[in-house]
Amino acid sequence: MGASGYLSSVFLCLVACVVEPYNPWDFSRNALAWRLAHQNVPPMGQPYSSAFSPGSSWALVDVSEPRALSNWNPVTVQCGEAQVVVTVNRDLFGTGRLVQASDLILGSLGCPYTSLNAEENVVIFEAGLHQCGSTLQMTADSLVYSISLYYSPNPGSNTVIIRTSPAEVPIECHYPRKDNVSSRAIRPTWVPFTSTISAEERLTFSLRLMNEDWSTERTSNRYQLGDAMHFQADVNTVNHVALRLFIDSCVATLSPERDSSPSHTIIDFHGCLVDGRSDDSSSAFVSPRLKEDSLQFMVDAFRFAGDDTDLIFITCHLKVAADNQPLDQLNKACSFDKTRNSWLPVEGSADVCRCCETKNCELPVHLSRSNDPWWQRARGRFQRDASVKQGMFSDWRCV
Q1: pLDDT > 90: what percent of the chain?
Q2: H-helix or E-strand containing 367?
């Protein structure tokens, strides 16, 4: 986190007025200004000999003054799990002149302060991590939420001069990108030796944004319309029987709650990439698979109509099955091929994708339990929700 502020140096004369902003933390500049203003002052007792003409009808007044503000921290920030709390001392510049609380706003959307402590002369802002125009950046290890505190002085009744300069204080909250997907131990109903070992371990699912050639994870989560978003779902199968990963569903929303409204379904019906069925979309699974415990798919960038935010949450329901289990309507990955006007699977027979068109991919009741191995009867224990947050469409807003 950092804080920067700007004061003003004012040079007054009988004819003209010049206002020049300066940084009170920059001692080298202040020292230079002080020398320039006093380099022509004669020693005590000697007559003043100005570098200007003796007949000058104006005087130079330097009101800039070096201030030892290196230890002055007028802005403090607390980063919580879902919100940020910013506390601002009204003596923002350390000059003793208190700023007006109404001249302070948080973020590019201009959120006003939430409370004012008159006794301690502090202004408090409380906002959600995704509110007030904050931006999100994803690094290899962290999620970084950025927002700025703005001070814009109101000249009040005097519109000719101002005595303070605007200031911007950049704020960042860093969160580790760990434990964002959780899983529980496997508890199969049939307990061979291999599954007993697997039950002592954990299945770890992940859903990541990848670069265009799928070689590394994408460092930015910002997209523009016309871009293709590359997703890769994985499951860690160390110390487990061989498993094949599937994506049951994916939905995009404006909030972390997958059941919120508005929403847009990307994958549905146990593995049908329905977003690719639209006339203006080329979204599809990548075939063939990279490996059995990984699944890749691409989605054309989009936005919600009538919404001016730049953040979209995409939540996917991931599951696994034993790699030797036959593919069926519940375990598949199907894309719509517009050239053939039909659904095609990543692997297996095209018959498993027929239900994507009828939108009824549930198994008949008499088949749902009979002859099912333990990994299908315990299917719920193999499924996890994974999510990514997409900050998209930077061409629509200044971010």
Answers
A1: 43
A2: helix 365-368
For the entire predicted model, the pTM comes to 0.47
Residue range(s) occupied by CATH 2.60.40.3210 in the chain: 7-176
C-alpha atoms less than 13 angstroms from C-alpha of 246 in its C-beta half-sphere: 28
Of 171, 204, 168, whose CA–CA distance to 186 is shortest? 204
Residue predicted with more confidence, 379 or 145: 145
DSSP letter for each residue of 152-185 = ----TT--S--SS--EEEEEEEEEE--S-S----
- Any idea what the Cα angle at residue 171 is, between residues 176 and 220, rounded to 5°? 50
- What's the CATH number for 7-176? 2.60.40.3210
Indicate whether 331 pLDDT > 60.
yes
CATH 2.60.40.4100 residue spans of the chain = 193-391
Rg for the chain, CA atoms, rounded = 31
Q: How far apart are CA 309 and CA 255, in angstroms?
A: 11
Using pLDDT thresholds of 50, 70 and 90, give the confidence band for residue 39.
Answer: very low
Report the top-level CATH class of 193-391: mainly beta
Residue type, 101: A
